[in-house]
């Protein structure tokens, strides 16, 4: 049981850090620039703001283990959208110009795991909901 708790916690925290870094990156690039790129690939520009906020705030929430299942569901939708709209056409491993969807798929599957299993006992969710075990 201790190993399971640590694995859940590590997956949750690492996924949170990765998404938070991506959100910060979008803000540093300038959301107007990201909006322009989104528009150029056929995605409504306002989704750049939605994606950046979900990545930044959701990443921080995952690190803490707050509303883990909700955030994980949002990340699944985000990654599915990225795969379908941008990465699917270049394949799993990509090509010389563009990365494939292997990372997006891995991040999505970690999100699916957290959606199904919850944050683990080392989380704020456990204290908020006062459950013996938030598995």
Report on this model:
This protein is mainly α. 73% of the residues lie in helices and 0% in strands. The protein is built from 6 helices and no strands. The protein has helices at residues 2-29, 31-40, 47-64, 68-87, 102-117, 124-129. Helix 1 crosses helix 2 and helix 4 runs antiparallel to helix 5 (102-117). The model has no long low-confidence stretch (mean pLDDT 92).
Which key terms come to mind for this protein?
single chain, mainly alpha
Element layout with pairings:
Blueprint: H1 2-29, H2 31-40, H3 47-64, H4 68-87, H5 102-117, H6 124-129
Summarize the structure.
With 135 residues, this protein is an all-alpha fold. It has helices at residues 2-29, 31-40, 47-64, 68-87, 102-117, 124-129. The chain is globular, with a radius of gyration of 16 Å.
Number of helices: 6
Which bin fits the share of residues in helices?
over 70%
H/E element string? HHHHHH
Number of strands: 0
Q: What is the strand content? A: under 5%
**Which stretches are poorly predicted, pLDDT < 50 over at least 5 residues?**
none
Which outline best applies? globular
Q: What is the typical, i.e. mean, pLDDT?
A: 92
What is the CA-based Rg, rounded? 16 Å
- The span between the termini is 11 Å
Largest beta-sheet characterization: none
Sheet/helix structural class:
mainly alpha
């Amino acid at each position: 049981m201790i190993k399971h708790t640590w694995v859940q916690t590590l997956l949750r925290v690492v996924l949170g850090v990765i998404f938070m870094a991506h959100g910060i990156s979008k803000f540093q690039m300038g959301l107007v620039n990201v909006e322009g790129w989104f528009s150029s690939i056929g995605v409504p520009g306002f989704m750049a703001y939605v994606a950046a906020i979900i990545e930044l705030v959701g990443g921080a929430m995952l690190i803490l283990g707050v509303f883990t299942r909700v955030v994980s569901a949002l990340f699944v939708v985000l990654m599915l959208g990225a795969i379908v709209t941008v990465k699917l056409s270049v394949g799993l491993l990509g090509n010389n110009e563009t990365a494939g969807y292997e990372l997006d798929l891995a991040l999505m599957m970690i999100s699916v795991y957290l959606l199904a299993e919850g944050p683990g006992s080392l989380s704020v969710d456990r204290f908020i909901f006062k459950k013996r075990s938030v598995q």
